[in-house]
Amino acid sequence: MKSISKIVIxxxxxxxxxxxNGQYEIKPAEGYTPQIGIMVDMLQDLKERLHQDVKELDxxxxxxxxxxxxxxxxxxxxxxxxxxxxxxxxTLEDRQWTEEEAAFWGVAxxxxxxxxxxxxxxxxxxxxxxxxxxxxxxxEGLKKKDDAWFAANIDEGLNNHWAWFHILEHQAAHMxxxxxxxxxxxx
Length: 187
Hints:
The protein has a two-stranded antiparallel ribbon with strand order 1-2. A hairpin with a 2-residue loop joins strand 1 (153-155) and strand 2 (158-159). The chain has nine helices and two strands. Helix 2 runs antiparallel to helix 7, helix 4 packs across helix 5 (99-109) and helix 4 packs parallel to helix 7. The termini are far apart. It has one domain: Four Helix Bundle (Hemerythrin (Met), subunit A) (Up-down Bundle). The radius of gyration is 19 Å and the shape is globular. With 187 residues, the chain is an all-alpha fold.
């Protein structure tokens, strides 16, 4: 009987917290076609939650590596952005990265020794502001597209919807990685 009481109390507390702190609804973002608007709402929600999780980090925390194979939060954010940038130019602009874009984003595309060596020394605001700029371009490009484009194939078995779903799942996966790094930060 005690365990049922604990479950009920936990559910009441959880529901009260959810109601007090957010809507928890997915609705198409205004200015977009319905399917793209739903994706935009989800992309923006994840980005905002990740932003909230890291916005107070200092430089040492942003660059922290908990072992020789780890990635810093700054590098993870750059990696998230590099993947979004690549998908944005490929799907929304129908082109490849320029040499300049490849030089800027390329090292973050593949996390590893090179990114650990090069992506450091910048405050968290650098990464968050850069992501805001990139996302503004993404959102502007998505506003120009419709749901027929979203469902259209890029290649056999790959459509634009899946490409942007991948950006969503990619952000979510790395959000978990950021949480692990934060838990390992020195006290």
